[in-house]
Amino acid sequence: MARRKIVAGNWKMNKTPSEAVALVEELKPLVASEDVDVVFCVPAIDIIPVAEAVKGTNIAVGAENMYFEEKGAYTGEISPAMLVDAGVKYVVLGHSERREYFAETNETVNKKVLKALEHGITPIMCCGESLEQREQGVTMDFIRQQVKVGLQNVTADQAKTMVIAYEPIWAIGTGKTATTEQAQEVCAGIRACIAEVYDDATAEAIRIQYGGSVNAATAPELFAQADIDGGLVGGAALKPDFGKIVNYK
Ligand code: 13P
């Protein structure tokens, strides 16, 4: 069965609640699609107003992070139940910016993945190499480690529902998109890794996105690749261009 494409915007630390609602109103008609799953992953404080603003549309709301405990003395953190109650369906976990600036590790990502799944939130688990790693030729070794540890104790049935985002760090926010061949090669490698850890059926079901300077010009070729099931979009998700990326065909 063909995998359904999924295009998600990662708004990062942009848009106040009122700006977020204005952006949703602007993008709503542009991202209408029957063929593609559309997700807006927004800052925590924007989740409730955005969830309200997307009611009755094809847009699902995602969070950009989540804590792995149920509740308690974790000042500043947000629990899975809070996200579910606010209408969140997806959560970005292990983004390279969280790994770099907020000490996220493969182990904490794994705890968060398990917790999100337990609560019925679909993880968008991120992986990706640095420029140094690419130049050293260890890209796939590094990503396999991220994927394998991130998926520890995740069942095959759970893994089938997940999204993995391949985001080469050197392509994020740099305007430097990976070439179609580079992106496809790593996404295929991730799928092969899933087949090894689980089985072919799981590898065929899991959706793998590419992220890193995706724009309206590069999306069509990237999303046409056999192992690329859509994109995780940063900068261009804040602009009308996002509509063109969703409707890339
Ligand atoms: P850009 O599209 O701005 O490069 O960001 C990619 C990204 O990090 C999405 O999570």
Q: How would you describe the overall organization of this protein?
A:
The chain is α/β, with parallel strands linked by helices and 249 residues long. It is 41% helix and 17% strand. It has helices at residues 17-27, 47-53, 80-85, 96-101, 106-118, 131-136, 139-150, 156-161, 180-197, 200-205, 219-223, 241-246, and strands spanning 5-10, 36-42, 59-63, 88-93, 122-127, 163-166, 207-211, 230-233. Strands 1-2-3-4-5-6-7-8 form an 8-stranded parallel beta barrel, surrounded by 4 helices. α5 packs across α7 (139-150). The longest helix has 18 residues, at 180-197. It starts with a strand and ends with a helix. The protein binds 1,3-dihydroxyacetonephosphate. Residues 10, 95, 167, 172-173, 211-214, 232-236 line the site of 1,3-dihydroxyacetonephosphate. 1,3-dihydroxyacetonephosphate binds at residues 10, 95, 167, 172-173, 211-214, 232-236.
